[in-house]
Design brief:
single chain, DUF2336, DUF2336 domain-containing protein, mainly alpha
Length: 377
């Protein structure tokens, strides 16, 4: 690092305010003292990192003056130090400094050592959303995603990136973070994915500003803790709370009805004859994971052979499953439930609704997907 000290003496530019000269003197003193103490010593470099960080808030903004350039150059070198504890000292000292040099925090945030990167990822306000989005896109270790999900303030785009990373723990932390802005389409997707992540459900039920329609959808889960969390929300009106309670009661009645002793196939046939084999019945069955009933219902409503329904669902083909549900005269919301619960399609592979509720494929496209399984007009 010797090249840094060629400019470490106090610069003498045009007259500057006394405070500027004082900071320049302090930076110069710190660098000279460190050199005299022996820069080959990791403890000396760690101390230098901490001292320079303490001076950062007093440096002229913009980094255009000589002393700022020298200080930033030294910090950049320390951020790449081959000794971990030097980088740890720098990360710990710089994490709470809002004016920290972007080049330094970006290097620390990408450090392979958790003890270096984690404090910066979690706390450093100088690390902007654009930089964080790049880090998330690079598929970092799970602990890095979790650290970002714990940040005091998280914008909607970054929340969406974390939720779309496929890391269940980080997504759960994000849902618990009241400082995270989570857009409605992202919440929509997470509600559907919570089929596979029961620990998310209560967190979702407690999210601030949860849209009414999502609160009602959360009631699809026969989970008393989730329902109780929804009923306690102050932002839901009495009608919504009553509807949540009614949905829960209906789910329980479905499981306790005398007809529940029937085979799934016989129950589906009986309801079909009664004109009651609708989305409500399918939703109630899926809340109890009655996939046999769902398969029988799709066979009857779509007017296809049971073997074809089995083939489509077992193929984990989201386009074909969606097309089958469309042929059965059911909604895209029902298609998403069936993709997740009956076909076992991974959340990241699911075909999502267009604009919240529409089918994302045209009728012609869905017909072509069904033809691949031998289903004609």
């Amino acid at each position: 690092m010797d090249y840094l000290f060629a400019e470490s003496a106090e610069p003498e530019p045009a007259p500057a305010p006394q405070s500027g000269r004082s900071v320049a003197r302090q930076v110069g003193d710190v660098l000279v003292e460190s050199r005299l103490a022996g820069m080959g010593d990791a403890d000396v470099r760690s101390t230098l990192a901490r001292k320079l960080c303490r001076l950062l808030p007093d440096l002229p903004p913009g980094g255009a003056d000589t002393v700022s350039t020298v200080a930033v150059r030294a910090l950049e070198q320390l951020a790449r130090d081959h000794i971990v504890r030097v980088r740890e000292a720098l990360a710990t000292a710089i994490k709470d400094i809002a004016c920290a040099p972007p080049s330094v925090v970006a290097t620390l945030a990408r450090d392979v050592e958790r003890t270096v990167a984690e404090p910066v990822l979690r706390c450093c306000a100088a690390l902007g959303d654009e930089e964080l989005l790049d880090i998330v896109a690079a598929a970092p270790a799970g602990w890095a995603l979790s650290a970002i999900a714990r940040r005091h303030s998280i914008g909607a785009a970054l929340s969406d990136a974390i939720a779309g990373s496929g890391h269940a723990e980080a997504t759960g932390i994000l849902l618990d973070n009241s400082g995270a802005v989570i857009a409605e389409p992202t919440l929509d997707r997470l509600v559907e994915q919570s089929i596979h992540h029961p620990d998310w459900r209560e967190k979702l039920a407690r999210r601030p500003a949860l849209p009414r329609r999502l609160a009602l959808r959360m009631a699809d889960f026969v989970d008393l803790a989730v329902v109780e969390a929804l009923r306690r929300r102050a932002d839901l009106d009495d009608a919504t709370v009553a509807e949540i309670a009614a949905t829960t009661r209906r789910r329980i009645d479905w499981a306790e009805a005398p007809e529940s002793a029937e085979s799934p196939e016989r129950r589906a046939v009986r309801l079909h004859r009664q004109g009651k084999l609708d989305e409500t019945a399918l939703s109630d069955a899926m809340s109890w994971n009655e996939t046999g009933f769902v398969r029988a219902a799709l066979t009857l409503r779509a007017r296809v052979a049971p073997e074809v329904v089995e083939l489509i669902l077992d193929a984990h083909d989201p386009q074909a499953v969606t097309a089958l549900v469309w042929r059965a005269g059911l909604s895209m919301r029902c298609a998403m439930q069936i993709q997740a619960r009956a076909a076992g399609i991974h959340p990241r592979a699911m075909l999502n609704a267009r604009q919240g509720s529409g089918f994302p494929l045209s009728p012609a496209e869905m017909a072509r997907h069904l033809e691949r399984y031998g289903v004609g007009p």
